[in-house]
């Protein structure tokens, strides 16, 4: 992730705490000078797993509804902030042991009014209108 992508990630994650969007606890670099700066690290809350890894498990209808509710709540929040995720898939929906869901991986996210490239989302999770266009 480059500096440009970091600018997409930080504002939505910083404001998104508590609204089904993974929070950002800290950003740091091991570099001791600007000249040696190449990498940075994002520190986020620990989540035990993601939806991709638990999709084969059996869940009660109440838990499924709760997971869907949290995903929609998070999407409503990021869309109301004018941000489009562009890579929403089960692997980018983290879940903890209390069945709390958080949207993560905003590396491809863009503001709705920004110019966007066409094919960025993971192939199997593309919208039909993107596939057919």
Task: Tell me what you see in this structure.
By secondary structure, the protein is an alpha+beta fold. It has one domain: Orthogonal Bundle (Transferase(Phosphotransferase), domain 1). It contains 4 helices and 7 strands. The strands form 3 sheets. Strands 3-5-6 form a 3-stranded antiparallel beta sheet. Strands 1-2 form a two-stranded antiparallel sheet. A two-stranded antiparallel sheet has the order 4-7. The relative contact order is 0.18.
Strands, helices and their partners?
Layout lengths: L2 H13 L10 E3 L12 E3 L5 E2 H4 L6 H20 L2 E2 L8 E3 L5 E3 L6 E2 L16 H5 L1
Antiparallel strand pairs: 1-2, 3-5, 4-7, 5-6
How do you describe this structure in short?
The chain is of the alpha+beta class and 133 residues long. Helices cover 32% and strands 14% of the residues. The two termini are 28 Å apart.
Q: N-to-C SSE series?
A: HEEEHHEEEEH
Tell me the domain tally. 1
Radius of gyration: 16 Å
Question: What gap, in angstroms, lies between the N and C termini?
Answer: 28 Å
Low-confidence stretches: none
CATH superfamily: Transferase(Phosphotransferase) domain 1
Tally of individual helices: 4
Q: Which whole number gives the mean pLDDT?
A: 80
- What percent of residues are in strands? 5-15%
Strand order of the largest sheet: 3-5-6
CATH top level is Mainly Alpha
The percent of residues in helical segments reads: 25-40%
| Second rung of CATH, namely the architecture | Orthogonal Bundle
Which geometry do the CA atoms define? globular
Keywords: ATP-binding, Kinase, Nucleotide-binding, Phosphoprotein, Transferase
Domain Protein kinase: 1-133
Protein name: Mitogen-activated protein kinase 13
GO molecular function: ATP binding; protein kinase activity
